[in-house]
Write a structure and sequence with these properties.
mainly alpha, two-stranded antiparallel sheet
């Protein structure tokens, strides 16, 4: 219900900005004592505004991680989202694409994360010696299956404007 009430809005449209560190920040700050906040609440703030701001905060946090990786020389060629949340929450996937300013591929394989963990565990445990166990398990991210979520230009521009606000808030809390 909250997703349906929040969907037609653009990133940052409610004026509410969140930092979602309710249990500390593991990445990028590695500090379990950090706390979250909601900034910009008024008497007109509705539950769907808070929900949307929290989704945006998660996407902004992902963008911070991506930027740190890219600044360290890591090339991110494709964003693949797997598991239950990407399949069940198209609003979050759209927000993520808008904030990251790149398309997000939602795999049609719901337990994709569990399968990936099992593959790495089997490889790490020596059950498979070849580095390319992906072929062994036939678990490729087939871009002809699933769904591509593309950037909404209008929302992406708003996200670009709100991202510095999020960064400023995180630096005040940090």
């Amino acid at each position: 219900l909250l997703s349906q009430m929040s969907f037609p809005k653009a990133v940052g449209e409610s004026g509410l900005v969140a930092v979602d560190w309710w249990n500390g920040s593991r990445s990028p700050y590695l500090d379990a004592t950090l706390t979250g906040c909601l900034f910009g609440m008024t008497l007109r703030t509705r539950p769907e505004h808070i929900y949307r701001a929290l989704l945006e905060a998660a996407a902004f946090g992902t963008r911070q991680i991506f930027e740190r990786l890219e600044n360290a020389g890591v090339t991110i060629r494709r964003v693949v989202a797997g598991g239950g949340i990407p399949q069940k929450n198209p609003l979050y996937m759209q927000i993520l694409a808008d904030v990251l300013e790149r398309p997000v591929y939602v795999t049609d394989n719901e337990p994709a994360c569990a399968i990936g963990a099992a593959i790495l565990g089997a490889w790490g445990g020596g059950l498979y010696c070849e580095a390319d166990t992906q072929a062994t398990f036939n678990c490729t991210a087939d871009v002809t299956q699933g769904l591509w979520v593309t950037l909404n230009e209008d929302s992406g521009q708003l996200a670009a404007g709100d991202y510095p606000v999020h960064i400023t808030l995180t630096s005040l809390i940090d």
